[in-house]
Design goal:
The protein is an alpha/beta fold. It has twelve helices and eight strands. Helix 10 links the parallel strand 7 and strand 8.
């Protein structure tokens, strides 16, 4: 609530990072520079073999981390280090239910709360799933959010049901399919935002297919409250793993997006 009530910038920048990519230390430095550059919320994707919603770019980053035995506990440690660096940025862990189920769920929520994160987003957990309801109930008790996704294929009937479960903000998918696979259609995005707003007063953030600062600028005209950028950031990191100036350069890229949102 605090983040979205702040009017500067009007549209929030949400940046997705694969946690501990390429390693814990460099990932933390990249995120620090990104916070300095103006991101409002940091999405931490925890590496998993079951990244069914991710395109090749992000899946390759997951695989890079898995080969180095990065775990969900490492992601939570990264969240803790980010919070120690900045008390105001939003921190949301993003991933898949199997990892949380194995953690297990109650311990995951306790640890998330202990490091002062703000919530999580589970890509493959519909509200009909027993485990998602268990997760949501435990998060609610800790005053944490379970961010829900809405896709172009989501029917009005389903959206009405989902709206009673929304928390924090709503992740509006700009197209059906996997991340990084195509560009957003502005007319479709605008219609999606308009549709979701008939069911909720919570902030709506637009993700998938936002590849450039120009894309982000156009998306701000759709009525969304935030833009989510992931694949283009992860792709740049993947192409410049050995660059000693990588954190600084990612910060500059983030800044170029944020400047279009003011």
């Amino acid at each position: 609530k605090k983040i979205f009530s702040n009017k500067t910038p009007k549209t929030k920048m949400i940046a997705y990072f694969v946690a501990c990519y390429p390693n814990f230390e460099k990932s933390l430095e990249i995120i620090k520079k990104s916070i300095d550059a103006g991101i409002s919320i940091c999405e931490l994707g925890f590496p998993t073999q079951e990244a069914s919603g991710e395109g090749t770019i992000i899946k390759n980053a997951h695989d890079h981390c898995l080969k180095r035995n990065v775990t969900l506990k490492d992601t939570i440690k990264l969240a803790e280090a980010i919070r120690a660096y900045n008390k105001e940025v939003g921190i949301v862990l993003m991933g898949y239910m199997s990892n949380i189920f194995k953690y297990p769920i109650r311990e995951f929520v306790n640890d998330l709360s202990a490091v002062d994160a703000d919530g999580c987003l589970i890509v493959d957990a519909p509200h009909e799933l027993r485990e998602e309801n268990e997760l949501r109930n435990l998060l609610n008790k800790k005053n944490l959010s379970l961010i829900k996704l809405v896709a172009p294929t989501t029917t009005d009937q389903r959206l009405k049901k989902l709206s009673s479960l929304f928390s924090g903000w709503v992740y509006s998918l700009n197209f059906s399919g996997i991340s990084g696979s195509k560009s957003a259609d502005m007319d479709q995005v605008k219609e999606m935002i308009k549709k979701i707003k008939t069911f909720t007063d919570l902030p709506i953030c637009s993700g998938f297919g936002i590849k450039t600062p120009e894309d982000a600028k156009k998306i701000t005209l759709t009525g969304c409250d935030g833009v989510i950028v992931g694949s283009s950031i992860v792709e740049y990191i993947g192409k410049n793993l050995d660059d000693t100036k990588l954190p600084k350069n990612v910060g500059n890229i983030i800044k170029s997006f944020v400047e279009e949102l003011r």
